Amino acid sequence: MTNNWRIETQAVQGSYAPEPTEPRIPAICQSTTFKYTSADHVAKLFDLDLADHMYSRISNPTTEALEGKIALLEGGVAALATSSGQAAVSGAIFNICQAGQHVVAASTLYGGTYSLFANTFPKMGIEVTFVDPEADINEIGDAFRPETRCLYAETIGNPNLNVLDFDKFSTVAKQMDVPLVIDNTFATPYLCKPLELRADIVVHSTTKYFDGHATSLGGIIVDGGNFNWDNGKFPELTEADPSYHGLKYVEKFGPLAYIVKARVQFMRDLGCCPAPQNSFLINHGLTTLPLRMDRHSSNALALAEHLEQHPAVSKVNYPGLKSHLSYPLASKYLPKGCSGVMTFEILGGQEAGKKFMEACQLIALVIHVADARSGVLHPASTTHRQLTAEQQRSAGVNPGMIRLSIGIENIDDLIADVDQALAISQQ
Ligand SMILES: Cc1ncc(COP(=O)(O)O)c(C=O)c1O
End of a domain among 285, 304, 330? Predict the structure, then answer.
């Protein structure tokens, strides 16, 4: 039934239908463990013949409610929540990629993901080739190798804010017969649904707009359930898993094979599960996601238009602006808005940028984005600091760039704060 609800209703009531006298909202189940009366029941859980809760590293009722709601919002078959967005990105790849294999990724990624792919994965034997997301289809295809196991990109690149050409990326992924894995953190399923645009797996940092109030770290992997894993490239899904007495995921779980394996193998072994308290808070935040995304987007567009006219600003980067390179793609894939993150370049470069950030009063200097409260940050010296100058350029980070995460406050107050800080920055 909930599949037929519109997204605003799903965000409020999706995936939780209490029986009479049960709590109206999913309660915090702060228990690591669950009780049984028969040894056979427990044996069936370990053999994956039953999906009841067993141990909160593998699943937990509070987290299950969150996973069900996000799977519904994204239009996937199931989801696995993790302790952070980084854990979700790592898990999505580890689930189908091992030493000796390879990933092709858009170069315009969140700095933490870029570092993971450029520095940490290679130490584990997984190589990543970065491609310019503006490159043509043949050039992206040229980056593939026989051992490539997925194509990875962000719906809206952080902080370059380029909008992904889903037609192009999904076509390459289909041609190469590998899944397209999309980080949909900045767009959220309210603004864009990658699984409807032929992506196969979606990941999120739920720390961002899903929580929306800067309370809880979290991540999630959502499985679209459509990819054909039985194409010879993914024996870990089609052949016997010795850690489950020879169980074959595709044979036993069909369209749920990928996400079941992520839960019972990746999460079992690496243990990056969310705390129930955090799952509760993120689910609570999700209730207002559609309302917040409308306001984040309209506030950001109004401020971007204001900054574009401001004499102390040399460039504004927001995909909702007609001047933006991604505007045609934003109009196609993000018709409801482009979320709350934008960047701009200030006259006077890095020094003026520093003065600007320190002069903001309402807008706080924070590392975070996607909070209900507005924030400001200098990516080159913070989120993308560990990257070389060349890597920063390819991720779209310029030395003078300032990133704003526009919250849901009153737009007139935000514009007033930015104006007074810009005036100070030019003194
Ligand atoms: C687009 C994107 N993906 C992944 C992450 C990592 O998420 P977390 O900080 O929850 O580990 C972030 C964090 O900022 C992000 O912006």
Answer: 285
